User: Which sequence fits this backbone?
């Protein structure tokens, strides 16, 4: 245990010694570190501060200080003599240094005096260099600002010259490129503040130009339309007569170039040597400029809405007619011009801009206008009564549709309108030709044409297809069978066909369709107009019988001539072969019907004239003895009939025969009516014998064959009934009549018992009147009276027993 504690004590003593040695070593190291370290001593001092051996450190520090003091003292002692020698030398040098100082000061003063001008020049040079630096800096700043100022001046100049789109581009470049480079300058702030105002002024100015353009283009749209129609006319080789002098467009194109800046037409468009589109002469820059400006400003929709709204209003004005269009062709032209001018401009805007005018928008605008245009044309054309004007209107409508089609616009409703115009044109022609035919008929003398020379004859044959071998053999003067109205009517029919052909031109019809249209119109002319005029002429009371006969003859030659109209229509339409319309013209039926009516009218007039003569008849039915000659009125009738039938030489034989037979039958019946007149109550044998003389003249007339071609005895049969009746009374052959009654071979087969009774009663009454006047009459008269009564009784028995004959 004691050894252990001894070892422990030794260890503790050793540890104390080690600790003491370590503390000494540590203190010594701290002092050495302070002395030799080139680093800051603050960490070392912090370590001393934090340690517990301050005293030991101070002891070591003092010991080190003392050691250094001893070293310093040894060094000073060693160098002391050298220090003294150095001091002595320094004192000697001091005097030399003072002398040198004086010399330096003197030299310095001399130098200062001589360098004063140099210093002055140096100061001037310094100021000059400073000024130069300022100038260079100023130039640099000005060069930096100069593009901004130049661009601003350029902007103002562009606005003055109304180059608004370029000005807007310049403004955008100024705002986004130039001004940021010089934003530190005060004037740039003013420019930046003024930019919105400039932009607004550009918008207002471009919009003002656009408004001026819209107003100007509205005023000149009719010129644009006229030029467009002329251009299409030249391309399609239509008749140049569509455009006449004095059209609604301006006479001189230079009149369109006005002095103001609102005129959209460029000034170099007057050259006419080469074909130039009218749109090439219009300056659309206000529209493009305004569109670009509003697009750049992000207001394109606003601009499109405004433009379409304004043009929509102008379209309503363009399709509005001016006054009564049907009164003058100029109104139609101006109407077409302003419509075309408007939509041609819109089509150009469609093709030269993107989205300002779309195809859908333009189609809607056109379709809306199209229905109103068609209605306007239909309503105004309905009042037109002039065929020439309507034909000119048709030409304008056709050219109008061609122009529309060339710009891609639908014109179907307007083309359909042409069909209505065709019907109206035909109606106007019909009314016109009614007057033409009526005037021809009124002015005709209804006398066969007499040609004195071959030239006159050839002129007529050129007018109407007519040839006669027999007539050509005769010497001049020659008498043609027809009157003047035949070639005139034929020529007017051809003129009508020409008029229809004119209307059919430029309608894009095939030859067959054109041929069909002309034939239908010609048929209507013949069947309605000419037929109606002929009917009115035939029924005209002032037309004499001879004139009526001439009309009948004229219809024959017109019928023959109108057969050639088929070839005439084919020639002008160019239709040949199978393309010719199969129906043909109805001229044969028309003239045949007219001739039939004329023939009936001839028969009627002939009989009426006979009635006029018969009204002059004055019979004394109480004559005791006949006068021995025929009545004067009968002779007049026969002379009239003979003269009339001589005029029937050019009539067809059957017509003349029918007229003669009708007149004789009518005369026979009228004479029979005289005998049977209820107003005549008394009749003597002398009156019957006198009446027989008139019948004899009629029989002689019938036997003279006034009209050739009758079957033998046919015309005489018209007076047989009268002759048998008169013979029966004059011969007093009652026994034969009664015995042969109803026998085919009877001598008095055509005597009707009723007729015989009527006349016999009138004779009996006449005998009774005589018996009252003369009471003592002869025995023969009494027997005659008894015979009359007996015959009357037998006749009445015949009537009651069976049907009469004759």
Assistant:
């Amino acid at each position: 245990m004691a050894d252990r504690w001894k070892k422990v004590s030794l260890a503790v003593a050793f540890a104390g010694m080690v600790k003491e040695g370590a503390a000494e070593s540590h203190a010594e190291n701290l002092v050495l570190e302070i002395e030799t370290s080139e680093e800051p001593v603050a960490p070392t001092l912090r370590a001393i501060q934090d340690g517990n051996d301050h005293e030991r450190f101070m002891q070591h520090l003092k010991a080190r200080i003392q050691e250094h003091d001893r070293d310093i003292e040894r060094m000073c002692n060693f160098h002391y003599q050298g220090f003294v020698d150095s001091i002595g030398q320094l004192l000697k040098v001091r005097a030399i240094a003072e002398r040198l100082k004086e010399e330096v000061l003197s030299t310095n003063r001399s130098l200062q005096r001589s360098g004063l001008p140099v210093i002055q020049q140096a100061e001037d040079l310094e100021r000059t260099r400073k000024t130069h630096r300022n100038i260079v800096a100023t130039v640099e700043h000005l060069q930096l600002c100069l593009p901004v100022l130049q661009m601003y001046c350029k902007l103002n100049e562009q606005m003055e010259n109304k180059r608004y789109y370029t000005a807007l581009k310049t403004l955008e470049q100024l705002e986004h490129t130039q001004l940021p480079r010089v934003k530190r300058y005060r004037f740039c702030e003013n420019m930046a503040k003024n930019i919105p105002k400039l932009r607004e002024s550009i918008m207002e100015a471009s919009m003002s130009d656009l408004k001026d353009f819209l107003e100007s283009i509205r005023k000149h749209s009719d010129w644009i339309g006229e030029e467009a129609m002329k251009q299409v006319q030249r391309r399609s080789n239509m008749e140049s007569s569509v455009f006449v002098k004095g059209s609604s467009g301006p006479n001189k194109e230079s009149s369109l170039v006005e002095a103001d800046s609102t005129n959209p037409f460029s000034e170099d468009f007057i050259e006419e040597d080469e074909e130039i589109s009218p749109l090439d002469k219009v300056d659309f820059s206000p529209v493009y400029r305004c569109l670009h400006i509003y697009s750049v400003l992000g207001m394109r929709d606003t601009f499109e809405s405004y433009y379409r709204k304004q043009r929509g209003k102008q379209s309503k004005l363009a399709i509005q007619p001016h006054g009564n269009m049907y009164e003058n062709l100029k109104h139609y032209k101006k109407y077409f011009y302003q419509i075309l001018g408007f939509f041609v401009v819109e089509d150009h805007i469609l093709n030269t801009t993107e989205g300002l005018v779309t195809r859908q928008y333009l189609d809607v605008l056109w379709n809306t206008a199209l229905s109103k245009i068609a209605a306007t044309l239909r309503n105004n054309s309905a009042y037109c009564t002039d065929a020439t004007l309507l034909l000119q209107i048709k030409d304008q409508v056709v050219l109008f549709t061609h122009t529309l089609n060339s710009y891609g616009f639908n014109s179907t409703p307007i083309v359909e309108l042409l069909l209505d115009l065709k019907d109206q044109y035909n109606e106007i022609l019909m009314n016109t030709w009614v007057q033409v035919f009526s005037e021809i008929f009124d002015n005709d003398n209804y006398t066969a044409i007499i040609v004195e020379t071959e030239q006159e004859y050839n002129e007529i044959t050129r007018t109407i297809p007519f040839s006669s071998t027999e007539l050509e053999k005769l010497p001049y003067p020659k008498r043609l069978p027809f009157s003047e109205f035949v070639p005139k009517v034929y020529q007017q029919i051809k003129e009508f066909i020409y008029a229809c052909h004119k209307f059919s031109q430029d309608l894009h019809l095939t030859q067959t369709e054109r041929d069909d249209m002309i034939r239908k119109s010609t048929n209507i002319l013949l069947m309605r107009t000419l037929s109606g005029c002929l009917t009115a002429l035939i029924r005209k009371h002032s037309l004499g019988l001879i004139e009526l006969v001439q009309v009948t003859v004229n219809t024959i030659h017109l019928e023959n001539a109108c057969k050639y109209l088929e070839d005439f229509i084919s020639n002008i339409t160019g239709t040949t072969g199978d393309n010719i319309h199969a129906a043909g013209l109805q001229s044969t039926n028309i003239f045949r019907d007219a001739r039939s009516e004329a023939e009936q009218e001839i028969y009627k007039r002939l009989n009426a004239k006979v009635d006029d003569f018969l009204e002059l008849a004055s019979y004394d039915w109480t004559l005791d003895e006949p006068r021995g000659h025929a009545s004067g009125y009968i002779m007049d009738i026969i002379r009239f009939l003979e003269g009339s039938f001589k005029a029937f030489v050019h009539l067809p034989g059957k017509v003349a025969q029918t007229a003669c037979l009708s007149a004789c039958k009518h005369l026979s019946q009228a004479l029979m009516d005289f005998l049977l007149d209820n107003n005549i109550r008394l009749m003597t044998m002398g009156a019957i014998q006198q009446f027989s003389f008139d019948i004899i003249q009629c029989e002689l007339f019938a036997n003279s064959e006034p009209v050739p071609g009758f079957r033998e005895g046919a015309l005489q049969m018209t007076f047989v009934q009268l002759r048998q009746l008169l013979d029966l009374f004059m011969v007093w052959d009652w026994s034969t009549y009664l015995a042969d009654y109803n026998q085919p071979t009877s001598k008095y087969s055509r005597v009707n018992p009723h007729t015989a009774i009527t006349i016999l009663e009138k004779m009996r009454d006449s005998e009774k009147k005589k018996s009252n006047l003369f009471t003592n009459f002869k025995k023969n008269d009494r027997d005659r009276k008894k015979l009359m009564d007996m015959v009357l009784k037998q006749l009445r028995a015949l009537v009651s027993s069976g049907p009469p004959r004759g």
Q: What stands out?
A: The longest helix spans residues 54-160. The chain has a mean pLDDT of 77. The chain has 26 helices and two strands. Strands lie at 450-451, 478-479.
